[in-house]
Amino acid sequence: MKNTLKIQRAIKNSTQADLAEAIGVSRQTINSMELAKYIPSTALAIKIARYFGKTVEEIFELEPGD
Amino acid sequence: MKTRFLFPHSYRRIGWLLFVPFLVFGLAVLNHDFQVDFLEISFGKNPAPGTFESIFSVNTINLSDEIATLGMILSLLFIAFSKEKIEDERVAQIRLDSLHFAVYLNYAVLAIQVIFVHGTAFLDVMVYNMFSVLLLFIIRYRVVFNLENKA
């Protein structure tokens, strides 16, 4: 799964720590997601989307093979 | 994120503080027949050695090995299953993966020991096996957790 977390963060000008605190996870979890090493649960994906004011599918995208 | 069956974060430190002395105590009991005298309890006289009854009935036992075993179990559980400072779903994932890994590796090692270790030496294998799942879990979990936290 691909995601545009890093881009969204840049647009909103927020750090990994800001996002982490807002959605109640550790900063390492945000980092893992940005490196596409960790795929968040539906609940977490929705929280992230809400934080950026976007829909989940604007941020997360399936890759071929998923 | 709701986490069930976990001890508070501070229990990890308590676990390590208990683990070190109980490990030393346990190894002394296991390998050097170390016993603490005041832990001896008696339910009556032991049957005379060599008699038929003495094979089946022991009325005096020393609780050193019981205390060592329970102390090891408790301290390892505290270390293994205390919460992180920030509990989230990725931590839960690492914990589950590590538990899976530890169970597989533990039984792989046990299978090898079943094949190659025989007689009374196997009793030692079983003693170590009481703690090895938790030990393997703790090692795998800490390694993965610390590696990812460096990133």
Structure description:
The complex is a heterodimer of chains A (66) and B (151). Chain A is mainly α and 66 residues long. Helix content of chain A is 59%, strand content 6%. Chain A has helices at residues 5-12, 16-23, 27-34, 42-52, 56-59; strands spanning 2-3, 60-61. Chain A has a two-stranded antiparallel sheet with strand order 1-2. In chain A, helix 2 (16-23) crosses helix 3 (27-34). The mean pLDDT of chain A is 92. The mean pLDDT of chain B is 89. Chains A and B meet through helix 3 of A and helix 4 of B.
Order of helices and strands of chain A: EHHHHHE
Mean pLDDT of chain B: 89
Counting copies of identical and different chains, the oligomeric state is heterodimer
Biggest interface in this structure?
A-B, 12 and 12 residues
Q: What is the number of helices of chain A?
A: 5
Strand content of chain A: 5-15%
Strand order of the largest sheet of chain B: 1-2
| CA-based shape of chain A | globular
The largest sheet of chain A has its strands arranged as 1-2
Classify the secondary structure makeup of chain A into a structural class: mainly alpha
Query: What would the average pLDDT of chain A be, to the nearest integer?
Result: 92
Total beta-strand segments of chain B: 2
Shape of chain B: elongated
Poorly predicted runs of chain A are: none
Q: State the distance separating the first and last CA atoms of chain B.
A: 23 Å
Helix content of chain A: 55-70%
Q: What can be said about the biggest beta sheet of chain B?
A: 2 strands, antiparallel
Care to count the β-strands of chain A? 2
List the helices and strands and how they pair.
The complex is a heterodimer of chains A (66) and B (151).
Chain A: E1 2-3, H1 5-12, H2 16-23, H3 27-34, H4 42-52, H5 56-59, E2 60-61
Chain B: H1 11-32, E1 40-42, H2 52-56, E2 60-62, H3 64-80, H4 89-116, H5 121-150
Helix pairs in contact in B: 1-3, 3-5, 4-5
